[in-house]
Fold this sequence. Notes:
By secondary structure, the protein is an alpha/beta fold.
Amino acid sequence: MKKVYISFSSDIIHSGxxxxxxxxxxxxxxxxxxxxxxxxxxFDRYPxxxxxERIKVLRNIKHISHVVVQDSLxxxxxxxxxxxxxxxxxxxxxxxxxxxxxxxxIEQLARQGGQLLEFPYTYSESLTGLEHSMQGKLxxxxxxxxxxxxLLQYDRPLRVLEAHSGLSALIVEHAQAKKGxxxxxxxxxxxxxxxxxxxxxxxxxxxxxxxxxxxxxxxxMEVTTKPIIFDGDTGGLIEHFVYTVQSLERVGVSAxxxxxxxxxxxxxxxxxxxxxxxxxxxxxxxxxxxxKAAQRTKEFMIIARVESLILEQGQEDALARAxxxxxxxxxxxxIHSRQKTPDEILSFCDAFxxxxxxxxxxxxxxxxxxxxxxxxxxxxxxxxxxxxxxxxSAFPAMQRTAQVILENGRALEASENCMGIGEILTLIPEx
Length: 431
Ligand code: SPV
Ligand code: MG
């Protein structure tokens, strides 16, 4: 009996797949591969159903004899292990993002003495509608909120970029880069207090109130599906924070990060140049405990942000605080620094990981921006937040355009910096 391999990324098994399976069955015994959520979401939407459910569905399809997990976009490992005579695929991947994967598969099959069989891919109008509605569901609060916890299971650090409006959030949602055979995208969005204040022309001092911050979140939620991490500043009064937690959960935010400062908060990147007071450990632990007790969903995360390095209190203080906050129930620790090199962050992470292997660690490499995600991951970091880069890149572009119009008394010279009218009109398609 010849061996046939087909890999599945979709969580909707439709008649097109069944046609493919029936044709493949004419060539031999079928092993079906199920791509992990991590692999699927690197080039398609995040699956609505779990890996386990998708395995179960495939196991129960006539003609499928075995089901295996495919944990890479590439077929290399699976081919080494299975040595199939045939790999079957729809013919819809000859161009586009998956074309390099197809090419590498063909080369490896040639070396192993196998063959790629491509059959016409059939996809009906009604399936397009179903796909659209699945995409919409991913953005609903109950589907969005738990996803951050699931993404934290990935064997890589999560990449998070700031969003301060619907439009900037769409950029985070859709940005993609192909690098070294990998398709990269952002995993989640950071609703930064700095950016949410700056875009409103206000300083980052907890002046923009929670009602306004929730409006920003709502704008973002309306047009995107990726999980949201909310910058909760100090969390405010404990008596207020418990309400904030519930409001954030209700709208579908996945995590809030609160920093251990008290009184008038200033942005951390001022460091000791601005007067800032660190909260005492016990009071901040009480805030964490109150927030955890108030939350209504099990997946919502309250991440405690340690400001000891910012306020030059040293690593031992940072470690003592981080451990106390975890003991108080914090779902993760964010450690912040304004050094130009990542040394103090890496040193903290190494020391923290000696006694705590599991609590998620979050960093914000704004000043120490030469460090790469993989180096941070090697030191135990789970989430890397690019906290202010969209607003910092948008502002100089807008400023330059205003200047050029003034200098020339007309807009012609500014046009080269601007998107075309046709493009802006169709940038946001109607539903
Ligand atoms: C923010 O983005 O608002 C932050 C990160 O809190 S930082 O500006 O570095 O303090
Ligand atoms: Mg902030």
